[in-house]
Amino acid sequence: MNNIISGLRARLAPVADRVGTALEPVGRVLGMKSVKYPLRTVGVLLIYALPILHLPLINTENSDFSGVLFTVGTYVLVALGLNIVIGYAGLLDLGYVGFYAVGAYTVGVVTSEHGQWPFFLALPLALVVTMASGVLLGAPTLRVRGDYLAIVTMGFGEIIRIVARNTDWLGGAGGINSIPSPPDIGPEEGLFQIPHLSWQYGYPTIDDRVTKVLHFGVLDATPYFWMILTTIILVICADMLIKNSRVGRAWEATREDEDVAELMGVPTFKFKLLAFAMGACIGGLAGAMYATRVGFINPPSFPLMLSLLFVAAVVIGGAGNRWGAILGAVIVAYLPERFREFADWRLLVFGIALIVIVSFRTQGLFPGRQKKRVAQAEKEVQKLEEGAEIV
Amino acid sequence: MEFLIGNFAELTITGLVLGSVYALVALGYTLVYGVLQLINFAHSEVFMWGTYAVVWVLTLLGASGTSSLAGAAGYLAIALVAAVLMSGGVALIVERFAYRRLVRQNAPKYIILISAIGASFVLSEIMGLRDKIAGFLGLQGVLGDYVNNPRNTSTLPVEIKPEPVLQIGNYMVRDTELLIIISALIMMFVLDQFIRRTSFGRQIRAVAQDPEAASLMGANSTNVVRLTFLIGGVMAGVAATLYMIKVGATGFNVGFVLGVKAFTAAVLGGIGNLRGALLGGLILGIAENYASGILGSEWRDVTAFVLLVLVLLVRPSGLLGESLGRARA
Amino acid sequence: MRAIKASQLLVVGVASALVLSACAAPADTTEGGSGSTESFSIAYQGPLTGADAKYGEYAKAGIEIALADYAAAYPDGPTVTAIYSDSQGDPAQAPALAADLINNADVLGVVGPAFSGETEATEPAYSEAGLVTVSPSATRVSLSEQGWSTFFRVVANDGAQAPAAAKLLTDVVGAKTVFVIDDASAYGVGLGDGIKDALGDKVIGSDSVEKGSTTDFSATVTKVTASGAEAVYYAGYATDAGLIQKQLTAAGFEGTYASGDGSLESTFIETAGEASEGAYLTAAAGAAGDDFVAKWDALTVSDKGSIGVYSTEAYDAAWVILSGIGEGNTTREDVLAWVAGYDAEGITKHIKFADNGEIDGAGGVYYYLVKDGDFEAPVAID
Questions:
Q1: Helix ranges restricted to H, A185-267
Q2: Contacts of B102 in chain A (CB under 8 A)
Q3: Fewer CB within 10 Å: C terminus or N terminus of chain B?
Q4: Residues C304 and C257 in one domain
Q5: Does residue B281 register a pLDDT over 60?
Q6: Neighbors of chain C with 3 or more C-beta pairs under 8 Å
Q7: How many domains does chain B have?
Q8: Please, which pLDDT band fits residue A196 given cuts at 50, 70 and 90?
Q9: Residue C307 to residue C297: CA distance in whole angstroms
Q10: What ipTM was predicted for this assembly?
Q11: What does the pLDDT average to over B50-61?
């Protein structure tokens, strides 16, 4: 009897260890056993509270702040997904909006156009469908290398949009309307209600606007923001787990030198496909949330330009660094709303900003750690070569 | 299918015309790619600025009414010069502000791509905001009609009436169509010879093949890059003039869509390969027309991209392969 | 070294632009009325920047005139300002803007949403908040079928225009065969399909060319000429309408060309050039009269937009709301009730709304013939 138990224990111990190691990053996120724990909690709570606080200077004047925050949230989610594709696996995807569209259309089709599924049932389906579409699109295209991949993915992004437009089953050119909000959790007045603040001359006062917690109405975007923020936090945790696993290292190897990685026994195609599918899945998640918030999707909502903005977000933030990608997404989505008074000049200023940012930070604002290492090594090589030239 | 067979000559020739414009713009992408291995996203706007040069110059010269192609030849020649200067100039500006610093620092490719996308926004928005910019500089009164309604379509002040000149199959080819196809072929030939035979061309090929070795052999790589952008710009200027003869109208956002197609054409033929750009452009133009005929125009862009994917699956570096550096002298 | 300097200049430029923006007062508010100390706002939701900015500019022209007229007609009424909310016509951006207008208690009514897509995305919120919207240009049929209590439009929907356009082609033009082209947008497909339904087997061919995706329509032109159609109807917007007609004429097409209200602006004639002569344009609206143009010319507002498609509808939409405020309706509830019960002559048509927010009696549909490089006075199709 004792033998059996000790045998079991011996067998289970490594498993438990492994689980422990796998969960370690989660612990790190939560800052367990660390002084950073309270600070991080406050930080996260502050982000949750943003749409309630309406802080001066960051509040958007001419468009609803919680609505803007939700939009920023979708970009952040997209950037996290695209960061896996571009940053980790080094695959330049210029058609990422396609997956965003697939997620949105899946929700649109099953909740409004051809069914009455509740959103929380449609969401997992959207994930499965986008992941499958990632595999389907990736399987032929990922055999193509480097810059060719950019144009091919761009083509696929366009194909998805045009097919949606030409297919009546998907709503055709008119799109899909009346996509329902997620069902309320708890009573219709919300679990409880939180009043908003408004600021005058630097002093906060309590506004008569209230947000109903977990009530997804059409007027208040705050619950949607909380939903997407929670999703973002979960995705970040998953992202940390994967990045530090064997998969993450395989991606890095593939990105830095595909041939060498292949020689070292990394099945690069399989890993690239995995990156593509995971990226697609997160993009689809963002699209699904967009669809349920706006309630209406049509093909022009998913233009090629959006793909470029997504790539810009990841790259100026620093491809390969999830925090960089998040920052990039915030810049790309938030600044144009914050500076609405620029009106017509926004896109021009944005273009100038892109040029300026990348010309000063040639690795993005927050380059990934591996990127830094590689850049350092390259610089050294270059220095050596330049030295040789002088001699 | 019946429709395609019945109108084969017409669809082929109009496809070739469209393809010629694609090809000339594709050259800009292919040259820059050949030398720097970068996608010059701003090239489409270089083309767009060229189309405006044509409009402005003809307005300045007071051209109006309608005219045959031959009747407007004088005007068009001047417009061609203006468009070439404009596009060439804009291309150099793009190189200077969006590329040079980053290329020197050996920045990652996609960083430079973002810079080029930024430049593309800036160029198209400057055109779309030209009334406000002119107002800002106090020039609105002077520039007047050149800057008014910047977000709207700008049309060529003189309308060019195409005349049928040549019967091919059951289609009468028009003089404008003939002009466009022939000009594109001539430009391609001239450029091909330039790259193959002149010392500038040799330097471009050298840098494309091995920048470091080329610089050791005395090629100034900055100058070569500048020259590459300039040539791309000149070709875009020619394309812009031909485009305006054919279409007669432009807008601040015409570049983007045409640019995507031209870039597709360049990749289709084998990016970095001049003859590939021509072949890719012509094939794409014809394929789009055939597909529009058979499947309906709503599927033409899908056809273009599906064709691209199929070609790349069979020939991973395009129909003719990448070869700017390897072109034999 | 020079490289750094130039880039530094750019940084300084951006920085100073940021400072400027921080100093700038909230842009785009224009005063009208002056007598009372009370002040309210009407809002416009539509594209003021981006590819479709010109439609916002056109609407702005109408709204500015309506504000000036309001100030003249109700000198003792409350001060009303206009808030121009730039959605770029984008359903993704519109909800946050709508929420902001809803949260702004001064806003009593909205002119817009300009496009059908953004209407789908924002009207549920307006409806729940009870903020009335009167659209000058959202023409999708289904918009009035969704039970929104605040949705009104002063423009006939695509369903009303299509049968009239079909009638124009068969009765006025006398065409026995028609080729229908749409621009693959929701507007174009809706209108085009409506015409196909109304014409039945007179339609001998159709094609769909995506708005803004190309300027070369040779395959479509070949289809038209090969079909031998006597008339072509293009359901889409002005630039493409002009280009298609020009290319058709160049290819030897001699039949009649017609298009819809989306193409009813001078851009169409400029783009098509001489080929536009004899083209028909259908629209559910009369022209901007000389009176309207004179008022627009007299406006002293610096940024007053320009007159074009739906300018007059925007005027009517704004006037419906403004006259309500002038008559002493100063709560959202009252303004909504005022609009629902509105019954008076507008400048485009008689304005009275059915329960679903459509113009009651659909108004007339007119055609405009292009002659000598200009639109002739509209003629009713009946």
A1: 222-243, 246-256, 258-263
A2: 358-359, 362
A3: N
A4: no
A5: yes
A6: A, B
A7: 1
A8: confident
A9: 10
A10: 0.91
A11: 95
